[in-house]
Structures are given as C-alpha cells and as structure tokens.
Amino acid sequence: MNNMSATITTTISTKAPAMNQPKISARGVQVHYGDKHALKDVSIEIHPRSVTAFIGPSGCGKSTFLRCLNRMNDTIDICRVAGHIAIDGEDIYDPKVDPVQLRAKVGMVFQKPNPFPKTIYENVAYGPRIHGLAAKKADLDDIVASALQRAGLWNEVKDRLHAPGTGLSGGQQQRLCIARAVAVSPEVILMDEPCSALDPIATAKVEELIHELRENFTIVIVTHSMQQAARVSQRTAMFHLGNLVEVDDTDKIFTNPDDQRTQDYIMGRFG
Amino acid sequence: MTHPHIMSAFDEELKYLTRRISEMGGLAEQMVADSVRALVNSDLGLAQKVISDDAILDDAERQIGEKAILTIAKRQPMASDLREIMGSIRIAADLERVGDLGKNTAKRVIAVAGSGIPRKLARGLEHLAELALVQLKEVLDVYASRSPEKANSIRERDEEIDAIYTSLFRELLTYMMEDPRNITPCTHLLFCAKNIERIGDHATNIAETIYYMATGAQPQGERPKDDTTATMGSVTE
Questions:
Q1: Nearest by CB: A264 against B3, B7, B10
Q2: Which residues have C-beta within 8 Å of that of residue B201, sequence separation ≥ 6?
Q3: A with B: how many residue pairs have Cβ under 8 Å apart?
Q4: Is residue A263 within 8 angstroms of chain B, CB to CB?
Q5: Is this complex scored with an ipTM above 0.85?
C-alpha cells in the first residue's frame, strides 16, 4: 500500500508513541462495496489515549471506516480498501501484516453483546490463550481477573466465573465483551454502537468504563447518540455520504460546529 | 441558513421562548418610559401602574425559565439550539431586572412629588431615559434579527449613557451643596438616574448574549466604561 513496506516487520511493534504523535493516521482512504463508493478520501488522525467518536447518519460510512482500522473489511469479498492507514506509523495494510495479530492489537466491541457460548471465564481466557499470553494456568487466571476488573464486571461475576456468559444481563454481557477485548492487551479498542442495545443504567456503566479505559487505550466509538458522543469523547468526527465532514474537539463540535451539515445533524434538523 | 427541526414540536418550543422574550421586552420598555414620565410629571397614578406591571414581568421570567428547563430536559439541545435556550434564560433575567429598575423609579415618584424637580434636572433625566430606551429598543430589534454586528455596535454605545449619567451625578451634587433641603429629593433622583443608567447596562448584557447566541463566541474586547462616578468627590480627584 505504500513505499514504507520494506521496513516493516511482520508483527507490529508495541512501542508507545509520543503523546503528540497520532496513534492512528489515515490518509486518502477510499472504500468500495462492489459499485458503491462507501468512503471517499477520508484522512484523519486519531490521538492516543483518548476517545474519538464517529457520528453521522446511517450509511454515512462511519462503521465502514471503523472496520478499516482493524481490517474487518477484509472478510467481505466485494469490499475494496485503498489509501493509507498507519498505527504508530506502521502501515496496517502491508501484505506482511498478519490481520489476526493486528486484531489482537486493535480490539473490537460490537453493537449487540456477542459472548461465546462458553463460561464467563472461558470467554475472557480464549483470546489470551490462543495468542499465547499465559504460560501457566495461574497467569491465565490473573489475566482473566484483571480484564474483568478493568471492565468493571469482576464484583458481579467473581463467584460464578464458570457459569455461562450468555446467562448475564445484556449490560453485563457487553462488559464481558469489553473484558474479552481488553484481555489480549490491545492498544486500540474499536466500539461500534456499544450501547445501542442497553438500558440507560447499563449504558452509564459502559460509558464510565470507556472513561476509565481511556487512560490506557486509544478508543474509537461509533455512536448514534449525540449525547453519548458528547459525554464520552474528546474528539468527534462527523461523516456524511461517505465523506469526513468535520473533525474537531468534542466540546467545539457540540457547541459551535463549523460545518452546516454537522449543525443540522446534531441539532436534529432537516439537512 | 437554518433548517427546521425534524421534531416540529421543538421548533414550537423555541418559538414560544422567542415570543415571550419579545413580549417581556415590550413591557419592560413601556415600564421604563412610564416610570420616567411619572417622575417628571409627578404622576402618582402612572407610577402605581408601573409598580403593578412589574408582577407581569416577574411571572413571564419564571415561565420562560420553566419552559427552557423543560425544553432542555426533553430535547437535549445542541450547538446553536442550546445557546438559544441558555440565551433566553439570560435575556429574560436581564429584562426582569430592567422592570425592577423601572419599578424602583416609580416608587420614588411619591417621595419626589412634593418638592418638584428643577426643569434642567428633569430634562437631563428625560434625555438619559431616552438614550436608555433607544438602547433597549434597538437591542430588542437585534434580538429579532440576531445580527452579531449590530449587537456589537449597541455594546459600544453604552458609553454615551455613562457619560450623561456622570454629568447628572455632578449636577445633583451641586444642588445638594447649594441647599441642604435639596438632599432628600436629589438623593432619590440620584437613585433614579442610577436606575436608568443600569438599564443601559442590561441592554449591553443582552447585546452580548445575542452575540454569543449568534456566533458561539464571546464578544471581543472590554466593554466601554465612561461612568466615573465611583471616584467622584473624593479628595484625590
């Protein structure tokens, strides 16, 4: 995808970027689904250890772009991605990059909680085990406990770790999925409408969690709730008809956005 | 250009706020004009009317505040919608204060009525009131048009009111020094002049609020100040 590929090693290094370096940098990203031009020349920088919200009407390309960031679009045959996306300066579409390794580094949480039909423990242990992150059973226990703690679920499930994950409430299941994403020590967590199937209490817990996770992870969240974007993010990017319309500090976007389309969208006006 | 909301009831709520603010503005203007007329003509009946009108203005401010809270809770407004609603609350509070100042002037009519006001002073007060009323009227027009440029120009004109207030202050001091019997009426007139001068300040506040509602930014630069009465008569002057 770019001329830097010769210098890139197969696995992506885990060196921490300086604070002023973007964690993710995208330039001229184009996505086609067959004939449909879904993303048009999107360029954006995503800051480390912060929450960036993608907003925009349905079909604007925000989820498509999110899925480019861990190459989830690779799984769709008719999808073609062009342009340049780098994490810590390294091209993630380089042929030498293993998408499985990339997705361990760039975790994802989906709209509907989708725990494996396994125990709570196994849901979280699965990723660390296949990625060989734990040498001994005790290490794995530690990873599971710490991931569940980080996901704010530990106190609710510590006495029933071997009960099925599907037996939890919707909000708990979603936090279990976040624990599962966190367990493999990712650097970036992508969230595609993580609260759209949750009630307000469960939503508040997930939002509080996002706020805490920001200290250690770079988070990108797609949301249809303007209030949620305003509450949880530091930067907001507005997408419309496949274009990135505006990206700015969240405080500015929700009080005084520059673009008319952003204004109309966040204020619920006809555009 | 601004598109209507998808939820038309939201537009209705915003229109309600705008309409009530305009009504408040009209009544506040009327009260200020009446209070000064009552003062210079020693018209106790008119003064009484101003005093009772103040309750209407108080009610209107409460109702605007309640509607604004309800709209924020229901619509979770963003960007210029949010500024619009916050601005309504602030402007309603300023207009309510303008009404209070008119009422205060009206209350003093009784105290001043017995002694009669020297013609020159009455003219000065009338002139001050005219200027304050022009400010108030223009700021209400700007509220209707939401022009940030006009809002800024109103802000700059408060200077003139301050200057006239300062000269009235000086004149009243002179009257008091001439004859101690003038002290009681002149003190009341001093408060009346101060009331009118502060109406200009509220008009300026409203202009700043409108500027913020329209642009999302605070107006640039210091507010002009020509009221130097705070240090007047001190030995160091």
A1: B3
A2: B158
A3: 45
A4: yes
A5: no
Q: Facing residues of A46 across strands? A: A24
Which residues of A are less than 8 Å from B3 in CB distance?
264, 269-271
Q: Which residues contact A52 (CB under 8 A, 6 or more apart)?
A: A46, A218, A219, A220, A221, A233, A234, A235, A236, A237
The CB-side HSE value for A98 (13 A sphere, CA atoms) comes to: 10
Q: How far is A215 from chain B (nearest CA, A)?
A: 27
- Of A1-5, A132-136, A137-141, the least confident: A1-5
Domain extents for chain A? 48-66+96-266
- What architecture (CATH level 2) is domain B10-226? Up-down Bundle (1.20)
Among residues of chain A, what percentage have pLDDT more than 90? 79
Tell me, yes or no, if A229 comes closer than 8 A to chain B by beta carbon: no
Say whether B7 sits in a helix, a strand or coil: coil
Which of A227, A256, A271 lies at the smallest CB-CB distance from B3?
A271
Q: Do residue A268 and residue B5 have CB atoms under 8 angstroms apart? A: yes
Residue of A nearest to B213 (CA): A256
Q: B155 pLDDT band (50/70/90 cuts)?
A: confident
Residue A271, pLDDT score: 65
Fold of A48-66+96-266: Rossmann fold (3.40.50)
The domain ranges of chain B are 10-226
